[in-house]
Design a protein that fits this description.
By secondary structure, the chain is an alpha/beta fold. The protein is built from 22 helices and 32 strands. It has four domains: 208 residues, ATPase, nucleotide binding domain (Nucleotidyltransferase, domain 5, 2-Layer Sandwich); 149 residues, Aminopeptidase (3-Layer(aba) Sandwich), CATH 3.40.630.30; 198 residues, ATPase, nucleotide binding domain (Nucleotidyltransferase, domain 5, 2-Layer Sandwich); 167 residues, 2-Layer Sandwich (Nucleotidyltransferase, domain 5), CATH 3.30.420.40.
């Protein structure tokens, strides 16, 4: 079998293909590798180097059997590029991904039986790990850890041979120590060796474990984020919260309960019956007696997931036939309705298949033919439909697919690879199938939302050349995972926490979006197996938080490479404009088209926590001109700071908007900055407004006055919205634009929407605002922008494109170096 290896935990960009011979796993063969010393080149080099390794090895992506990735420890930013890339490759190809300690990968290639591995942790600190080999086993005596060089050497002594990274070789703390290697790094073969030596050694059984789902991928950071939770400031006694308390508005964020995977016994029968009755009411749900019989059968194994004591879901597995050649059957998979969408079915399947693959054997199951999400889930684990049982579910009479997953290892591995190839539809060099539409997937990770969206692009020209008139872009999926609750206690977005959250959320969010794609195809009478992947992948490459951008863009490039489709690196701000042209559906499934307007000469007002800009739009997907922007705080940032000042928590926008609706916007005359004739016509400043709110509250407290919190919120909000709308309408009049677009997270604000609509009507300007779900950051807007630039004939970015946290609005799609 062939294993893809990746490591970016050090200054080196490491990629390679390692062959594990089935007859002798000890005889590892590095078929191809790329090892480049470039500490700032992980993003540009990694995925192109993987593609080069595959080409040199003469392999297609779907011929890979597993992925092994160095999980660190290592500097945060570079480490996440490798891990995001590895897990995306594995997910795209439906193959397992295994993380190993990068320090263990270094130790695994050493001839020494005991070694201390040291690498650069920056900040004048080292990463370290003390490893020992015992036959075909490698284990950590201590570590991995991070500490000051002198502290590490004092603790370890000088007896153990040391392997060090090149940058540490001449450090004074190593004086007198035996240095066995002065340029240590994780190599492709070292990564595979570590995976085998920490899991049974060089045996066929150990090698087969690489074909089964591993433990959840976790980066070894060893350091906590630098963010410090701010001390709570005393709330002014001048603020009256009486009306707010009466309405039951409460601050704070609930802490997510821990999920536990357990084996179920008779004590779970009653809860299982409750779930059965709710989910399968139309098809004779199992009785309590039937459930008890299942739980007590000698050949069944039931797995459950609990949270805070409550059973959220379960899976039933049965082992049939002789022990040396068993067959398995999944009897049921059930998840409470309120817990669906949390990835619990995936978690249950991983646990079940880990048990199956530890023994071997085929797995069978039945599933409704019209249950596209479930069919998609099973296909991702190597199941294929081999028949249909008519009227299987009673009394509804619904049909069932019979699906089978081959035994992994040996012939089973080849069969699984064949299934994967058969499910891959052909695509042209341009990535466009035909006039049925081009499927484009977008990834967004510029701040604290992990977004994956899918759209369908249709027009009269299937070759992708520029066409007359607007194309049609229909939304298929919009999946977003937000890490906002993790930032709440810090009072704002913490870049490091956002980056970590993106790495954890990317694959689950991607899988949800792809299930939506299958469901959409099934609903339109198209074969789901032929449309389970996109024709192009796009990602935000800027502007945004540097670390957050890297995770999403690295993952998106890996998905594109694994699926062999073009990649487009696009502008986040342009996405907020492109989303206005989407065709969406209302709550009853009716199509809603973006209202007409002149988008060859339009004004876009983008308002969020990171951006407040007036843009001159000269066609969606074309370069835009920034006419004005904030000179200090963005509008959303001002909302957050004022909310913190008033003791309202984070995020500030929604709670201030809610309270403002009950207050008097004329109660307090807060200043409108940058509105004098001599000021810049289109620029904003909100830092002074925040200071004015603070001083007003302080003065009221000093004078012994009380003021309703609702009036403070309403007056502050009016000052913000007054300036935003006045300058946006002014810009439209100055350029003769008759269309106004509103986007960004703050565009969900009710007063901003209402006041801008009022002023646009008075000026004869058409205002278009996207649905609430598309106002905040999301992957749909990225896919929508990519659709527009593709329709206009733009070339793909290439896989070597980098991210740019300060990307200018004039650049809708970023070109690579290829």
């Amino acid at each position: 079998m062939h294993v893809l290896t990746v490591d970016t935990s050090s200054a080196y960009v490491v990629a390679g293909i390692v062959e594990i011979p089935e007859s002798d796993p000890r005889a590892l063969n590095t078929v191809s590798e790329r090892i480049v010393d470039n500490p700032r080149g992980h993003m540009e080099l990694l995925t192109p180097n993987i593609v080069d390794c595959l080409a040199e090895a003469g392999l297609e992506p779907e011929e890979l059997s597993a992925v092994v990735v160095g999980a660190g420890p290592g500097p945060f930013t570079g480490l996440r590029v490798g891990m995001a890339t590895a897990q995306a490759f594995g997910d795209a190809l439906s193959i397992p991904v295994h993380g190993v300690e990068s320090l263990a990968a270094i130790a695994a290639t050493s001839e020494l039986t005991e070694v201390l591995v040291l690498t650069d942790a920056r900040r004048r600190e080292w990463y370290g790990g003390h490893y020992r080999k015992d036959g075909d086993t490698l284990f950590a005596v201590e570590g991995p850890f991070v500490d000051k060089p002198d502290v590490i050497m004092a603790r370890q002594g000088v007896e153990t041979p040391i392997i060090v990274a090149k940058s540490l070789a001449d450090h004074e703390a190593l004086a007198g120590s035996e240095i066995a290697d002065r340029d240590a790094l994780p190599t492709p073969q070292g990564l595979v060796r570590a995976a085998l030596l920490t899991n049974g050694g060089f045996t066929a059984a150990s090698a087969r474990t690489l074909l089964t789902p591993g433990e959840p991928l976790r980066a070894l950071y060893l350091r906590r984020p630098d963010a410090v939770e701010p001390k709570a400031k005393p709330v002014s006694s001048a603020l009256d919260f009486g009306a707010m308390a009466e309405d039951g508005d409460q601050g704070g964020v609930e802490q997510e309960e821990e999920l536990r995977t357990v084996r179920l016994d008779q004590s779970a029968a009653a809860e299982m019956e409750e779930i059965e009755r709710d989910l399968f009411a139309e098809d004779s749900p199992w009785s309590l007696e039937g459930i008890r019989a299942e739980l007590s059968a000698v050949n069944t194994h039931y797995i459950g997931i609990r949270r805070d004591g409550q059973l959220l879901g379960y899976l039933g597995l049965a082992k049939n036939g002789p022990s040396d050649d068993p067959e398995w059957e999944i009897h049921t998979v059930a998840v409470r309705r309120e817990a669906q969408g949390l990835g619990l079915s995936h978690r249950l399947m991983v646990e079940a298949l880990r048990k199956v693959d530890g023994i071997g054997g085929q797995v069978f199951l039945e599933v409704r033919t019209n249950n596209a999400p479930a069919v998609g889930l099973y296909e991702r684990y190597g199941f294929r439909a081999v028949g249909v049982r008519k009227n299987y579910y009673q009394p509804s009479g619904a049909d069932a697919y019979v699906m089978v997953r081959p035994s992994f290892g040996g012939e089973g591995e080849a069969v699984a690879a064949e299934i994967q190839r058969d499910a891959t539809p052909p695509a042209s060099a341009e990535g466009v199938r035909d006039t049925r539409g081009m499927i484009i997937l977008g990834v967004e990770s510029s701040c604290d939302e992990t977004g994956v969206g899918i759209v369908e692009l249709t027009h009269d020209n299937a070759a992708g050349q520029e066409v007359d008139g607007p194309c049609r872009v229909r939304m298929i999926s919009n999946r977003v995972a937000s890490s906002m609750t993790q930032h709440a206690r810090f009072g704002g977005v913490v870049p490091e926490i956002a980056s970590r959250a993106h790495l954890e959320a990317m694959v689950p969010t991607m899988r949800q979006a792809l299930r939506d794609l299958r469901a959409d195809r099934a609903a339109r009478g198209l074969p789901t197996s032929a449309f389970d992947k996109p024709d192009a992948v796009a990602a935000t490459v800027g502007p945004g938080l540097a670390g957050a951008l890297l995770v999403g863009a690295a993952a998106a490039k890996a998905y594109a490479a694994a699926w062999k489709v073009p990649f487009y690196g696009v502008n986040h701000l342009g996405g907020h404009v492109a989303v206005d042209l989407l065709v969406t559906e209302d709550s009853e499934g009716r199509e809603e088209h973006a209202a007409p307007g002149d988008l060859d000469n339009a004004i876009a007002l983008l308002v969020s926590g990171g951006h407040t800009q007036i843009l001159h739009v000269r066609g969606v997907g074309k370069p835009m001109e920034e006419m004005g922007g904030t000179l200090d705080d963005a509008a959303g940032e001002a909302y957050d700071k004022v909310a913190r000042l008033l003791g309202l928590g984070y995020p500030g926008g929604p709670i201030i908007d809610k309270l403002a609706a009950k207050g008097n916007a004329k109660a307090i005359s807060f200043p409108r900055a940058m509105m004098r004739q001599q000021d810049a016509r289109y620029d904003f400043s909100f830092s002074g407004l925040k200071t004015a709110v603070a001083r007003y509250v302080e003065t009221a407290e000093r004078e012994g006055r009380t003021i309703p919190i609702e009036d403070v919120c309403a007056s502050f909000q009016e000052a913000v919205c007054d300036v935003l709308t006045a300058k946006a309408v002014r810009a439209a009049k100055d350029v003769g634009a008759t269309t106004m677009l509103l986007g960004g997270g703050v565009s969900a604000n009710s007063r901003l929407r209402g006041l801008l609509l009022q002023r646009c009507k008075s000026a004869g300007i058409y205002l278009h605002i996207p649905p609430f779900a598309l106002c905040t950051d999301n992957g749909v807007m990225i896919a929508a922008l990519a659709a527009q630039v593709i329709a206009a004939g733009a070339q793909p970015s290439g896989l070597d494109v980098d991210t740019d946290p300060s990307l200018e609005v004039e650049i809708p799609v970023v070109a690579g170096r290829e």
